[in-house]
Fold this protein.
Amino acid sequence: MKKIVILLCVLATTFTSFGQDYTDPQNMDVEYNRDADYPGGVNKFITDLWDQMEYTQDAIDALIDGEIMVSFDVKPDSTISGVSIISGLGHGIDEEFTRILLSMKFKPALVEGTPIKMNMMLSVPIRVGPKSKLKLRYD
């Protein structure tokens, strides 16, 4: 019985000593005044992206029809960083998508009027057909 009591005391001390500290400001939820967004909204973002996309002959021949799931950070200066393709389409489309995305500017998120970095996740439809713009340069 004495061993069980000692074991329970040790476990209780361990849980309280190494438990998560909820007073740490880094653990607090951030309340955004405004989320990061593309000027003109998601539909404008997709339209602008499609206008700039160029596809390899391989992608055009394959008539790719799908979605790219992407995660990225919108920094306080409106630029994009940390692009991660979660679900891609291959055929050079993921690389072209990343290249275009990195050149775009978003409105940063605001907390108490101050621009801050915010992570975004988007699912973007991609439709490649025979009349899609062929990528003539290979970076």
